[in-house]
Target: AB hydrolase-1 domain-containing protein
Amino acid sequence: MTGTIARFTLEGVKDADVTVYPFATEDGLGLELTRFLRAESDDVVLLVHGLTSASDVFIMPEHRNLASHLLDNGYTDVWALDFRMSGRYPYDTETHRFTLDDVALYDFPAALRVLRRQVGDRRIHVIAHCLGAVSFTMSLFGGAVGGIASLTCNSVSLTPRVPAFSRLKLTFGPNLMEYVVGLPFIDPRFGDAPFLTRAWMVSRLISLFHNECKERACHIQSFQWGAGRPAMYEHENLLPVTHARMADLCCASGLHYYRHVRKMINAGNAVKYDPKDDRYDALPDDYLSNAAEIETPLLLLAPERNKVFSDSNNHFHRILEKAAPGRHELAVLPGYGHLDPLIGKNSHLDVFPRIVDFIKRHGA
Ligand SMILES: [Zn+2]
Model:
């Protein structure tokens, strides 16, 4: 079915005026916000994707997507951000040394300045996924952004935890890929690489361990992201068309971010990549240090079958309960994996209503 749905299509959101707002970060990257507007409203929602994905995971035409669900439920001004991790840009496959500190310090503050210029002081609710959720929470807890009415994080936030096999891959994977295999990124499309090239060999080697389906992109996603067959989602939660176009939704990604994640896992929670680098002086060395003072309520979505960031959000909720009892919420999602809460065929029944309910209680 790949090819029947155009890449980066905006067709999944109906009856909305779509406007793209390009902007630049202070460290010189061009990024974009896409606004889906039916009517101006007191509560504005900003959607933040993860590493390897893009705003596309919120606007897929083949299922009832989150942007449409919000528009239909009274949140008539929805914005989707593509920041430096987005698969819509070349940044991730170029040689780079970006860390999550760069995202927290440069991307979200710049995006929110653009957003604020358009929506004034109306309430902004943020829904973030994966490393987008980690870095947005870093930005919020680190004081780089503020005035957020509510924040929903899917899968993970300030305390990344991963299965044992992933720890092993995080320890050796980036150097193995960069120095031994000679590729600075990993791409679900390696399966389409020419015969006997390095990318082809990486793909065939990975597929030896994955008999669960016939999609090489799905196998590579599992290898890239977690410990499971598959690791990113539960197959039964996806429409076949979504599974078949996984390489459109989750693209190539650079390996350096994994080094920062590894540092956080070793530290037990989000920490600055290099505390000695004075470019990041505005950010705390330890992002949990003032958790008690953060007044923005968090909804932590904890997929029960999370084979990428395991019980990260359950763990973070316990920490937050000690820091600020009763302020933040945990929603366990039975039967869901890491990404399917957003891209699943029944997400609009099982997951999105819980987000809307949370935003409603912290909005107008
Ligand atoms: Zn699969």
About this structure: The chain has two domains: 17-162+266-361, 164-254. The first strand starts at residue 17 and ends at 24.
